[in-house]
């Protein structure tokens, strides 16, 4: 009988699926096909195993293992700003089995542990993320390292580890499919928008006919710089892995949130105080920048300074300017028409150190400073300086990571305490070495360099490993004697030139006065920089790191001095939810609409996780909320059939494009096994006429999407009315359940609107 074929072009095959419709009838159709072919039809299934390493029944960073048959994904690789190695013991135990890493957002909670995993744990596999997550994530970890390095002798990871980790990234676009190879043969990964942060991703992992969705920290609402998440567009995935972080939260409207922020900031500035907003380095801070910069621009504010303060502020804004395609569609359209980039931020001062901040005019300031946890970074220094002034405001815009300084302050805010909060904080800073320390440092450096040169010139030629010499006294003594004897043989007969560190073969340098064309050579043209920099900044930071940061990168001889300081917080404290996540009501509605066959809840407080679990158990068949290291194993019971579409058959099929990126067609054919063992093929009916099918509509109609399509295609004014849309002056579209009806005078405008709607959903 007639069926609907969905064709998706991949690099290796065409695939077909059953018609859009009720999922409940899928098994009946599969059984009917099996009856036609009897025992010759083979079914395949996959096994999915999910193991949370951390980030369940709590608000710890996210890190999960997902095994699809023999292939192992690491879903995010998060850490908190304290970067305590003990938190990664479970990751260390499983890192060798990881075949690929999927990163969903560009903050430490999703990718903070990557440099340590690559540099110290030996993680060596492809990492997949969107381009903004790749670029912004690198800036986040540069800022984390530089902030830590400024306050302590930080050796957990270094900038080389960061560069190595991000050298393993495979940047992707939204909706771009990648077909894995080797152990991952048959698995396809695809990123979709998640909202919350630029480049934020909902991952779809497809094996055969099964979809696995990984959607954490998503936001369905449209914001100033981001479109909403695409999660609601999926239907009946095999598994949905999502978070319960906002499972007990109710959000206010975006306009009310923005007005509350601006009102609190302006009230403090007008009273002569400063505003400190601890923020992340490169994700949610962009939304805050746009809100405040827009207010500064519209109100023509010149009496107060608006500042972005972190080690990579310039690079973050420059990257944001180049990633408009991943942002709000209104931003992209505006740039196409006016060439004005919303992230020009003409009212924002970009500062990379406290010295640059002090150079700004002496007037009240709003400073967006990293890091949001206040565990390190320039924001921590400003907190110590500004907290004691009652005219100032400390404004938090996200819930703090557990165990951090921000968490301690927010806990005080939620309490009924009336006395000022007193804290004892350890503050570290770098100082130049004194004369004695400098001499000792230089002697140690010279000894280290001589040892390295000796290893290269002598031990390397002798086939020895310099590490062997340091292993033990007895063994080292024997090896050193052997190396010394080899060195004497090499040196005998040669005289060490003056100024050389090792024996050299004589090499007379030819004095060339003219080039091969006879032109006189001027040595001055080839003279290089007389004082080249001994080190270079990391990729992407050239020319942007100066002051303290450039000093750190050059490894100048400094020492860390740690002081304990008593801090009394007399400044005003305020919290405004700028996290950009869907709230409890939205989570329930979206997940219920998606209707996953298996739901796994992660990353939320025990109360939020249990609350959502209890709710979804009433509307879904299978809901899991695993504890750390508790595996969830899901065996696929749905049958999938591999069919080969022959060329003769494909020539008879007429495809129509419908909503989304799908091509759908009616087919009328026979299932045959052309050769023994070659599998089933769909071939044209022999000697039968092609059946004539009725026109049908495929897909789910959403008025909001239809409004945008009609506006962009016909350039008509379209607005909502209860239960429908008004298009232009003469046409009304009403929706009753799944049925659309058109109302209006028969006119050219009526038929144009109808044709646009038909083009989205209609096939015949």
Describe this structure in words.
α5 runs antiparallel to α6 (159-167) and α5 (131-151) packs antiparallel against α9 (313-321). The strands form eight sheets. A seven-stranded mixed β-sheet has the order 8-7-6-5-4-3-24. The chain is globular, with a radius of gyration of 32 Å. The chain is an alpha/beta fold and 764 residues long. It contains 22 helices and 35 strands. Helices cover 31% and strands 23% of the residues.
Shape: globular
Strand content: 15-25%
- Summing up helix and strand content along with how strands pair, one would put the structural category as alpha/beta
**Please, how many helices?**
22
- Report the count of strand segments: 35
Rg over C-alpha atoms, rounded to the nearest angstrom? 32 Å
> Which consecutive residue ranges, at least 5 long each, have pLDDT under 50?
1-43, 461-480, 482-490, 532-536, 542-554
Describe the largest sheet: 7 strands, mixed
Secondary-structure map:
Elements: E1 3-9, E2 14-15, H1 26-37, E3 47-54, E4 63-68, E5 71-75, H2 89-94, E6 100-102, H3 108-111, H4 114-119, E7 127-130, H5 131-151, H6 159-167, E8 169-172, E9 178-179, E10 187-193, E11 201-207, E12 210-215, E13 239-243, H7 254-270, E14 275-278, H8 285-299, E15 305-309, H9 313-321, H10 329-338, E16 348-351, H11 354-358, E17 365-369, H12 378-386, E18 393-396, H13 405-414, E19 421-432, H14 435-459, H15 466-469, H16 473-491, H17 548-553, E20 558-569, E21 572-575, H18 584-594, E22 598-602, H19 606-616, E23 623-624, E24 632-635, E25 643-645, H20 647-650, E26 656-658, E27 662-667, E28 669-672, E29 680-684, E30 696-697, H21 703-714, E31 718-721, E32 724-727, E33 731-736, E34 739-744, H22 748-761, E35 762-763
Parallel strand pairs: 5-6, 6-7, 7-8, 12-13, 13-22, 14-17, 14-18, 15-16, 15-17, 18-21, 22-23, 25-29
Antiparallel strand pairs: 1-2, 1-27, 3-4, 3-24, 4-5, 9-10, 10-11, 11-12, 19-20, 26-27, 28-29, 30-35, 31-32, 32-33, 33-34
